């Protein structure tokens, strides 16, 4: 999507107050919802993702599964509100060995695990709104001993402990720089 685009500074792939915040995202919703609401703390529009199961409600970018983002910028910044519920997000990158690797961060995991194609890691959130910064170049080098080339895909999912409950995620911005 952005492979042939000049990339400098930062590139926003989700901006909740924009006119079409999910324009380049695929939305999967079953037994939940994805909608914009106004957050009382910041008095601004945010994206709410709520679902009963990670496989039934999530957003993925780019929307077309045959395309990739092609973003060369190595830092991923996300602003998310801690609602004291479980969630996870996943970033797929390409390294200099031409291998697709996934990094999955979640607030319900306690240890980091590195497998050949996926690295799962815990993430701690403070109360309220959090700015999360991921240095994808550093993660790729430390986990796999290879060099980051580009970001291919991003996926955001709420996660629940039981089928009876709903989990909610509030997003404000996703920026790569």
Describe this structure in words.
Pfam families: CFA20_dom (PF05018). It comes from Peromyscus maniculatus bairdii (Prairie deer mouse). This is Cilia and flagella associated protein 20. The chain has one helix at residues 136-144; strands at residues 11-15, 26-29, 32-39, 44-51, 57-61, 75-82, 87-95, 100-106, 113-114, 118-122, 128-135, 148-158, 167-176. The chain is globular. 5% of the residues lie in helices and 51% in strands. The longest helix is centred in the last third of the chain and has 9 residues, at 136-144. The protein has a single domain (11-176), classed as Jelly Rolls, CATH 2.60.120. A 7-stranded mixed beta sheet has the order 2-5-12-7-8-10-9. Strands 1, 3, 4, 6, 11 and 13 form a 6-stranded antiparallel beta sheet that branches. It has 177 residues and is mainly beta.
Feature tags:
CFA20_dom; mainly beta; six-stranded antiparallel sheet; CFA20/CFAP20DC; disordered C terminus; Jelly Rolls; 1 helix; Cilia and flagella associated protein 20
- How many structural domains can be distinguished in the coordinates? 1
Give the biggest sheet.
7 strands, mixed
Radius of gyration based on Cα positions: 16 Å
The largest sheet has its strands arranged as: 2-5-12-7-8-10-9
The SSE string, one letter per element, is EEEEEEEEEEEHEE
Organism: Peromyscus maniculatus bairdii (Prairie deer mouse)
Protein name: Cilia and flagella associated protein 20
Domain CFA20: 1-159
Pfam family, one: CFA20_dom
């Amino acid at each position: 999507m952005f492979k042939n685009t000049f990339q400098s500074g930062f590139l926003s792939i989700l901006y909740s107050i924009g006119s079409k915040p999910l324009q380049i995202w695929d939305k999967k919703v079953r037994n939940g919802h994805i909608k914009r609401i106004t957050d009382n703390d910041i008095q601004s529009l945010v994206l709410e993702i709520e679902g009963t199961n990670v496989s039934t409600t999530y957003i993925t970018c780019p929307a077309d599964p045959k395309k990739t983002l092609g973003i060369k910028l190595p830092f991923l910044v996300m602003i998310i509100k801690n609602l004291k519920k479980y969630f996870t997000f996943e970033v797929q990158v390409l390294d200099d060995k031409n291998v697709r690797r996934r990094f999955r961060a979640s607030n319900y995991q306690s240890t980091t695990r590195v497998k050949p194609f996926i690295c799962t890691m815990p993430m701690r959130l403070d109360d309220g709104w959090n700015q999360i910064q991921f240095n994808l170049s550093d993660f790729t080098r430390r986990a796999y001993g290879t060099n980051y080339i580009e970001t291919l895909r991003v996926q955001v999912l709420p996660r629940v402990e039981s089928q009876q409950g709903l989990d909610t995620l509030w997003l404000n911005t996703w920026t790569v720089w």
